Amino acid sequence: MNILVINSGSSSIKYQLFQTPAFDCLCSGLVERIGLDNAVITHQVKIGDDEKVVKQNLELKDHEAGMAKVCELLLDPKIGVIKNPNDIDCVGHRVVHGGEVFSDTTLITAKVKEEIKKLFSMAPLHNPGQYLGIVLSEKIFTKAAQVVVFDTAFHQTIPAKAFRVALPNAFYEKNKIRVYGFHGTSHKYVATQALAYLGKPDAKIVTLHLGNGCSMAAIRGDKCIDTSMGFTPLDGLIMGSRCGDIDPSVILYLLSDLGYTAKEVHHLLNTESGMLGLTGSGDMRDVKKLYLAGDERAILAYNMYAYRIQKYIGAYAAALNGLDALVFTGGVGENDNLTRELVCTDMDFLGIRLNRDKNWQTISGINEISAQDSRTKVLIIPTNEGLEIAQQCLQLIQV
C-alpha cells in the first residue's frame, strides 16, 4: 500500500511517500516560497541503494501549481516512484487544529472539511493552507482514501483541571476557550519510541519538541496529561519568534498605553519576539554562534530559553508525581547540544544528570545521554511526524 503524507503550509508543501508493510520512505520533498519569487522544490528519492536529490527553482503562483509539480515528480519517467496517481492508496494530511471536535485520526468527508474551515480563526497560519492541501489532493488522487491527523488530537486526554482556563464558564461552554496543545503527532511518536526503549509501558515521561516552535508534554504511559502550548501555539516556551508565557497585562498595556492595534500585537508576539526579538535571529544555529562568541544578548537569551524549559520540567514532574525520562526531539532538541546541556544543568533534585561527552557526540537513532547514576533517563529521539501519520492512516483504513 502506498501512503502519501502531505503537510501543506501557507506557502509550502511538505510530503513523504511510504510503502507498507515496512513503511519504507520511497521519496520525500519540500516545496517552498509558493506564490513568491523564486519558489524552490527539493525532492529526494531512493532508487535501489542510491539516493537522488533534485532541486529546482521555478515559478509557482499557487498551491495548485505546487501540487501539480509534486505529482509530476512522483510520476517522472526516470525518478518517479508511481506510474499513475491511482497508485496512491491513501493520502494522510496533517492539520494543526482540530478543536474539541476531533480527537482521533479521521476519514475526510464534506462535513469534516466544514469543521476544519470553522477552525481557521484558531490556527490562521496553518489550517487554511492545510485545508487547501486536502482540496487539491482530492482532485489529483481521486481513488485514494483521504485521511486527516490533527496535531491537537493527542492532547485530548488532558484532564479538565489542566485544560480549563479560569475565565467565566460561558467562555468555555460557548466559545471553547481552553488549552488545546500542539505538536501532538511528534509528542506521540517520540513517547511511543521512549516507552519501547525503556521497556516500561506506564513510564512517566516529559517530551520536549524544540524547533522554531517549541512545546512540552507530560505523558504517563500513552496518555498526555498536560502540555505547554495552550489555546494557540503562542503559549508556553520561548520559541524562534514567539514569546511564549507572558503576563496578559503586557498585552493590555501595548493596546491602551502604547497605541498598538490588536493586529500589531498579534504580529509582535508571534513573529517578532522569542529568540528573534532577544538576539536579532530566530535561528538557534545563529544564536549559538553568537553565544559561543560571548555575545551578551545571546547568552541571556539562551539562559532564558533553558530556564523556561526547566520550570516546565519541574511542574510536569510534580503533575506526573515522578519522572522516568526526559526526551529531546525536534530540530533544536535533536541537534543543539548547548540547549540540552543548559536544560539539564542543576537539575539533580529531579534525578537529571547529563553525560557531557555523550551529549556532544553525534549519533543517529535513539541516543541516551544521561549519566550512569542519573535516576532519570535523558534521551534524544529523532521525531518522524510523517511516519506517525502514515501509521495512523493504515490503522484507520484497515479497521
The major pleated sheet works out as: 8 strands, mixed
Order of helices and strands: EEEEEHEEHHEHHHEEEHHHHHEHHHEEH
Gross morphology: globular
| Low-confidence runs of at least 5 consecutive residues | none
Task: Report the total helices.
Answer: 15
Structural class: alpha/beta
Residue share in helices? Answer: 25-40%
Q: Tell how many strands the DSSP assignment holds.
A: 14
Q: Whole-number average pLDDT?
A: 95
Beta-strand percentage? 15-25%
* Main sheet strand line-up: 5-4-3-2-1-6-8-7
| Radius of gyration, in angstroms, nearest whole number | 21 Å
- Measured between the Cα atoms of the first and last residue, the distance is 15 Å
Task: Give a short summary of the structure.
This protein is of the alpha/beta class and 399 residues long. It has helices at 63-74, 110-118, 127-140, 160-163, 169-173, 184-198, 248-256, 262-271, 274-279, 284-292, 296-320, 330-335, 337-343, 356-359, 385-398, and strands at residues 2-8, 13-19, 24-32, 39-47, 50-58, 90-95, 106-107, 145-150, 204-210, 214-220, 223-227, 325-329, 367-368, 377-380.
